[in-house]
Amino acid sequence: MTTATAPKTAPAPSAELAQLAAAHGLTLSGARPTLPRYIAELWNRRHFVTAYATARMQATYSSAKLGQLWHLVTPLLNAAVYYFIFGIVMKASNGVPDYVPFLITGIFVWDFIGSSINAGTRAVHSNRGLVRALHFPRASLPISTVVQLFQQLLVTMGALVVLLLAFGQRPAWSWFLAVPTLLLMAVFAAGCAMVMARIGSKSPDVSQLMPFVLRTWMYSSGVMWSIDQMLKSDHLPHHWVLMLLKLNPAAVYIDLMRFALIDSFGAHSLPPHVWPLAIGWALLAGVGGFIWFWKAEEEYGRG
Amino acid sequence: MADTATTTDTRVPTVIADGVHVIYKVHGAGARKGGATAALSRVFSRRPSPGMKEVHAVKGVTFTAHKGEAIGLIGSNGSGKSTLLAAIAGLQPVARGRIYSHGQPSLLGVNAALMNDLTGERNVVLGGLAMGMSKQQIRERYQGIVDFSGINEKDDFISLPMRTYSSGMGARLRFSIAAAKDHDVLMIDEALATGDAAFQRRSQARIEELREHAGTVFLVSHSINTVRETCDRAIWLEAGVLRMDGPSAEVCDAYEAFTAGR
């Protein structure tokens, strides 16, 4: 039954073919799965998410002689640079007890949040090849990016504990508060990464802007200085400016981590309702980001 | 017409394409995009970039594929063969028309999931997971994949990073990983040309095997002989239009007559 077909001009969906498809249980190709189905698919790919994250983490420094040690050395060098500039040159340490633990906690936590968002922006776009070749829930990509950074964070948290002990902090029960803080942070970062991944996949130019946005966010989140101390001199007269700075999610998570780990960083330095705030930000970003990312599932890697 | 013939017979359809049009946009087409000021004025005037071009790659293709068929897609370069496969896989949206499929049609290819800095061993696991295999399945098939690729015939190459492989070895391992999974509908895009003669024979046999397990195999190839040998049906696309659909011998003859005449 050789058929030579002329070019068709009016391709209205044929009811006959649709019936045939339905009769044999064929489904429309490339349609977006429902949300529960999507979650199930993502769960089935959980090993891929973690394997991809670990693989990328191991591939990062594979050509360097020191290899994986750089995961530890890089944040420490970062902390040393910030300590030199802000601690010694600009004297941001004035009025901040335990400035070194204060600074490194801030930097390590910010490093995780900032790089999650930065890497999330590129998560889908830089994996276009993978997206175009294989069928899998695209949320795996930003999530595995955050999983990779979270693994790195756990390494640096280990170093942080050693440093804290070296700078005279005593282990206390409050250190266990770091665990829920880490989890909430991870959910928040994953949510942001998914939001940025969708934006970045549509307009790749955004990834050029992210370093500036993130730097502004970092400087206003009190990573290397205490927001309280800086604004005490009231050149920012409004109380709500201070409040706004302290309620921003990065500052909330950084302060919670400091509260957990540093003796002299007491509850008075925390914004009011800090735990509901931390949970709220995590849920808002995590759930909202996931649903928003899913809404464009069938469009990734196209155009 | 093909569709009226298929509705009366008892064969089980696996892929139904109904008047499929695929149009995609290409950024960065055209020789120049203009300077920075031109780009800025575009942003403000919201005019589309002159570098943006629409390509109408597939124009109204209708066919029904059945279980147990191996279908070769032939046509000259840029006739929309690969685009049609991507659309069937659900990786490229159709502008008009519909594609129905049984299960999840998959393109044979895991290249993008593999990492050159990791060992072949790790890449087998990573590629398998990317294709949706379970850890258990990968453990069971691991040895089979390595043996099939023939990577370890000379030395223990599988424990070396993939960047140390020759291009032929890399291609062989990639094909072996990709072919390790059973698919409902499998689509192969020019994958048979890799490796030496022995490997090509092995991959031909593997495709035969996949076709028995999978319901349907689509094969895009420029080699008319490969299509003749491997496929029982062929679809000829020319400039995005389906020109001919039928037994592969007939379609291949017609195609060869067409190309010889040009």
TrEMBL record, chain A:
Keywords: Cell inner membrane, Cell membrane, Membrane, Transmembrane, Transmembrane helix, Transport. It is found in: Cell inner membrane; Cell membrane. It comes from the Bacteria. InterPro entries: ABC2_TM, ABC2_TM_bact-type. Pfam families: ABC2_membrane. Belongs to the ABC-2 integral membrane protein family. This is Transport permease protein.
From TrEMBL, chain B:
Pfam families: ABC_tran. Keywords: ATP-binding, Nucleotide-binding, Transport. It comes from the Bacteria. SMART domains: AAA. Residues 38-259 form the ABC transporter domain. Signal peptide: none annotated. GO terms for molecular function: ATP binding. Belongs to the ABC transporter superfamily. This is Teichoic acid transport system ATP-binding protein. It comes from Streptomyces avidinii.
